[in-house]
Amino acid sequence: MIPKYPYYGYETRCRQVPITFPPQHQDVQPGLEYLMNPLPISDNPEYKGSGKLAGKIAIITGGDSGIGRAIAIGFAKEGADMAIVYLYERVDAEATKQMVEHYGRRCLLIEGDLRNSAFSEEVVRRTLECYGKLDILILNQGVQFPQESLLGISDEQLEDTYRTNIFPHFYMTRASLPYLKPGSAIVSTASVTAYAGAPLLVDYSSTKGAVVSFTRSLSLQLVSKGIRVNAVAPGPIWTPLIVSSYSAEYVKTFGLETPMKRAGQPFELAPTYIYLASDDSSFVTGQVLHVNGGVMTET
């Protein structure tokens, strides 16, 4: 069933979005969207596709929910078929698949752990078996474990954060590159924390800084092959990662620190990924686009 979203709070051009959220917490990351209250808003019904990604095949890591789900819906509207990679969130992944199919596109679900390099090879192999080619790679997986002190970051947490947030960028890109052609695009999810910092997220922020450096360096390596590499740096966005990493008390004021005085919704990010994946951005590579509610950053 396609979720029905509540309309209240701050009014955008297309709809109303929540300003604050009820206290809530989930114990396991990266979290389950169908348990959230309110549900994140992944689809903008006013957005009409124009074939910008017609005939394209995309892989979207972390595509089951949150930002990844919004990307999948936006890509479907623009004519792309896709493979969605997720860790364990099968109910969320099935819901995203239904949304993609609602817009007339195909969606292959692949469950597994991207911290394992061999799984990236499997993801690409299964995508090619299903669709016969690959045009777009969206690297969107992530975890975060807030700690008030660096002394609280264990070796296990540090390794988990890096193995989830940056290692798969290398694994997935390495597995995909032999099949990408001129005109292909790689788009990563960075974060405002890579630029503004975050006192509770020292390890997470540093992995997102690595994503920025990965994007800039890889773009220089691949520009001669006609493959563009860019990233999006979101600010606070209402996703399962928030309720599975922060306390219930913290969630009540999530996003209010931005100049816009609210958190963003996933649907507000999707057009940026569409832009970077499509020929609209044919003269754009090595860049990070900021969608963060007005936070000033040094790029």
UniProtKB/TrEMBL annotation:
<protein>
    <submittedName>
        <fullName>SDR family oxidoreductase</fullName>
    </submittedName>
</protein>
<dbReference type="InterPro" id="IPR036291">
    <property type="entry name" value="NAD(P)-bd_dom_sf"/>
</dbReference>
<keyword id="KW-0560">Oxidoreductase</keyword>
<dbReference type="GO" id="GO:0016614">
    <property type="term" value="F:oxidoreductase activity, acting on CH-OH group of donors"/>
</dbReference>
<dbReference type="Pfam" id="PF13561">
    <property type="entry name" value="adh_short_C2"/>
</dbReference>
<dbReference type="GO" id="GO:0008206">
    <property type="term" value="P:bile acid metabolic process"/>
</dbReference>
<dbReference type="InterPro" id="IPR020904">
    <property type="entry name" value="Sc_DH/Rdtase_CS"/>
</dbReference>
<dbReference type="InterPro" id="IPR002347">
    <property type="entry name" value="SDR_fam"/>
</dbReference>
<comment type="similarity">
    <text>Belongs to the short-chain dehydrogenases/reductases (SDR) family.</text>
</comment>
